[in-house]
Amino acid sequence: MSDIQHFPPGTPREPTMVALYASDLDPDVLRGMLAAAAAVSAGHGWTTTEDSVVSDDCLISQAPQSRTGWARVRELAEQRAVSVVVVPSLGHISLSWKQREAERQFLRRHGVSVASVEPMLDAILSKAVR
């Protein structure tokens, strides 16, 4: 489930700055996941800067706090430089539910939501979205 905040139609909003995050050992897979996250971001009209595209070249089984890329996401949240983090799936934050929820709470405390590409891709691949 996504943390994206929904606004009533016609509600003016500021442009949304987002961070894209993924983690994988294979650089080609990593590029593909970040491209999918970028497509979702663009589809929502969100803005991504080069310094907010963040990745780790490690297994997602590593604790989030031990990953330099995730540390950068936390830094962007603390600086209030982004309002959404787009990830391939919530498992990219952590495979541990407890750790993942702790990280999501940290982000929420800084006004940052999490959007997962996975359910959107599932809908596209199942042709539910046309």
Topology at a glance:
Elements lengths: L16 E7 L3 H17 L3 E10 L11 H11 L5 E4 L9 H13 L3 E4 H9 L5
Parallel strand pairs: 1-2, 1-3, 3-4
Fraction of helical residues: 25-40%
Low-confidence stretches: none
Strand neighbour order, sheet with most strands? 2-1-3-4
Q: What portion of the residues fall into strands of 2 or more residues? A: 15-25%
From the N-terminal CA to the C-terminal CA, the straight-line distance is 21 Å
Average pLDDT works out at: 83
Biggest beta-sheet profile: 4 strands, parallel
The dominant shape is globular
Rg (CA only): 14 Å
Question: What is the H/E order?
Answer: EHEHEHEH
Helical stretch tally: 4
- The number of E-state strands comes to 4
Query: Which class of secondary structure composition applies to the elements?
Result: alpha/beta
Oligomeric state of the chains in view: single chain
